[in-house]
UniProtKB/TrEMBL annotation:
One of its GO terms (molecular function) is transcription cis-regulatory region binding. Gene3D superfamilies: 3.40.50.2300, lambda repressor-like DNA-binding domains. Residues 1-53 form the HTH lacI-type domain. Keywords: DNA-binding, Transcription, Transcription regulation. The keyword Membrane does not apply. CDD domains: HTH_LacI (cd01392). InterPro entries: HTH_LacI, LacI/GalR-like_sensor, Lambda_DNA-bd_dom_sf, Peripla_BP_I. This is Transcriptional regulator, LacI family. Coiled coil: none annotated. Signal peptide: none annotated. The lineage of its organism: Bacteria, Bacillati, Actinomycetota, Thermoleophilia, Solirubrobacterales.
Length: 332
């Protein structure tokens, strides 16, 4: 910093004010200092800055399973918004293990991050809840229930909206026997299943069987094998999650089932596999990038007092059904 001050011909205190974005700096002073910074290729000491301003300008993001492409999109949305606000992102991956969630919450706290965004494996796990209650920094939960006694904001999806539309579409095509593959985090799985069951409850001759399990490709594969082994097969299958959809499509292809012919199929999330499949797969779609951006915006409302005083405690984004040829009239 001393060399920058000498090159710019200003006091070290002036350099400090420019580098910390102090408002009481003239445009001429800022220009002189920044020219010297670039000429000397000066890199500010981030740790020293953190000690000086009382902030690390970093945010922790604990992800349940980064192998899920939807979570990758959410991370991208959050990182872009936080970067624009001057924050870096520290990412952890829990690999579907709630015990790792607990370790990562502790790690991020020890790293002195200014706030955390969490897409947890199990937000109801007692030790996870205890860890959340002890966190002193602002929290935003992504698409999860808010546990009792935890002060947090939330950015989520209305999973029921798109799932209800998908079920209604299949009913209009004459389907009455349904199979629903469910699994994954409690909130999305619960909302999806409730939407399907409540919609079918209004149709006297409609019936369904649910196949709950883990949120994995393997569960999707095994559930379809069980479905196809039934004497009276359903005419429509709904896979309540992108990884479940991927596994289900594998088993259906291996069994030689013609989608949109032998039976109809609806998946979740508009991934490449859905559009490139033959025939293209009808899905319940959501804007994952947008929910990441919303989560970051909610966190910034707590990190930057006065930046968004009217920020809500929770933002809920819609989902929508996209009809494609994997859905067709029920076989007669």
């Amino acid at each position: 910093m001393r060399e920058v001050a000498e090159r710019a011909g200003v006091a070290m205190s002036s350099v400090s004010r420019v580098l910390s974005d102090h408002p009481d700096v003239s445009p001429r002073m800022r220009r002189k200092v920044m020219e010297a910074v670039h000429e000397l290729n000066y890199q500010p000491d981030i740790l020293a800055q953190a000690l000086r301003i009382g902030k690390t300008l970093s945010v922790g993001f604990a992800v349940s399973d980064i192998a899920n492409p939807v979570l990758a999109e959410i991370i991208t949305g959050a990182e872009k918004r936080l970067r624009a606000a001057g924050y870096s992102l520290l990412l952890t991956n829990s690999e579907g293990n709630a015990e790792l969630d607990i370790e990562h919450i502790s790690l991020l706290e020890r790293r002195r991050v200014d706030g955390v965004i969490l897409s947890l494996v199990d937000e109801h796990h007692p030790d996870v809840v205890a860890a959340l209650r002890q966190l002193a920094c602002p929290i935003v939960l992504v698409d999860r229930d808010i546990p009792d006694g935890v002060t947090t904001r939330g950015a989520s999806f209305d999973h029921a909206l798109g799932m209800r539309a998908a079920t209604e579409h299949l009913l209009e095509l004459g389907h009455r026997r349904f199979a629903l593959i469910t699994g994954g985090p409690e909130r999305p799985a619960r909302e999806r299943r409730q939407a399907v069951e409540e919609t079918l409850a209004n149709v006297p001759d409609a019936e369904h069987t649910a196949y709950p399990g883990g949120f994995s490709v393997d569960h999707g594969r095994r559930a379809v094998l069980e479905i196809l082994a039934q004497d009276s097969r359903p005419t429509a299958i709904i896979a309540g999650g992108n990884m479940l959809m991927e596994g289900a499509l594998m088993s259906l292809r291996e069994a030689g089932v013609r989608l949109g012919g032998d039976l109809s199929f609806v998946g979740c999330d508009d991934l490449a596999v859905a559009e490139l499949h033959d025939p293209p797969i009808a899905v319940v779609r959501r804007d994952s990038f947008a929910v990441g951006d919303a989560a970051a915006e909610l966190l910034l409302a707590d990190l930057e007092p006065g930046s968004n005083a009217d920020a809500p405690r929770e933002i809920v984004l819609p989902t929508e059904f996209v009809a494609r040829p994997s859905c067709a009239p029920a076989p007669r």
